[in-house]
Amino acid sequence: MIKGFARKYFEGKCCIYCGKYGLLRLKDGRLKCKNCYKYYSIKKLKTDIQILYYFYLEISGRKTAREMNLNYKTIQSRFMNFRKCIKNYSDNQARKLNGKLELDESYFGGKRKGNRGRGAFNKTIVFGILERKGKIYLKIVENVSKENLMKAIENKTKKGSVFYTDGFKSYNSLSQFGKHNIIKHSEDEFAKGHNHINGIEGFWSYAKERLHKYHGIKKNNYPLYLKEMEFRYNFRNENIFNLLFDICIRRSI
Ligand SMILES: [Zn+2]
Questions:
Q1: Ligand 1 centroid vs 7 CA: distance in angstroms?
Q2: Which candidate, 187, 207, 181, 160, places its Cα nearest to that of 103?
């Protein structure tokens, strides 16, 4: 079931630490690297890789626990740990977004339908910047004040970008960072042309649909789940399993 890049590790051919071939199989079942002299348990590694594989396939913690005959809490804590690794990885990506950028905010969690004013109580407010044909960046904000949004834009976008937003007042001073296009909802689709935020609105649906199946994520866990959504979206055209293996297992072993 494990394909490609991770297979050589899964089969105990390559060292998980240094990536070199040449491992000695010890009597107690552990492997010892001939190159860097480190030891590890192949049994534990195989379990870790299998858990990660289910996570990669977005199979629920309960189902994974049943399939692997392991405790649900064990699986759940491993899954949360993978999300932490993803968040660390994403937080270290310093590249600023540029080009055509769509900006929008959205409300996650809570029971009532949220909006910018009333109804936002107990919801996680997420500000997003989507680079057309590129990456998305998500930031949880306390509120959608001009100060909060402008700070995030300043930190994460290149000056001179082209911004697309709706007419919300917190975006009023956006022209200090680049060209600001405001979308008027009254315009028909044809008149809009490039002037839309369909990309980021599509992302919100993508993320909400995926998060819905977890049935009530605790508010303080939202940052981790959202960074997972950001990661899955940003690497949608790449081999995510290989990348997950690298950042959740190889670098954190
Ligand atoms: Zn090694």
A1: 16
A2: 181
CA–centroid distance, 21 to ligand 1, in Å, is 8
Through-space distance between the first and last CA atoms of the chain, rounded to whole angstroms: 22
**Measured CA distances, 104 to 4, 70, 87, 139, 198 (Å):** 38, 41, 21, 11, 10
Rounded distance from Cα 6 to ligand 1 centre (Å): 15
Whether the full predicted model's pTM is greater than 0.90, yes or no, is no
Mean pLDDT of the chain: 89
The amino acid occupying position 114 is: G
**Residue ranges covered by each domain of the chain:** 4-92+239-250, 100-216
How far does the centroid of ligand 1 lie from the alpha carbon of residue 33, in Å? 5
What's the fold here for domain 100-216? Nucleotidyltransferase; domain 5 (3.30.420)
The answer to whether the CB of 30 falls within 8 A of the CB of 44 is no
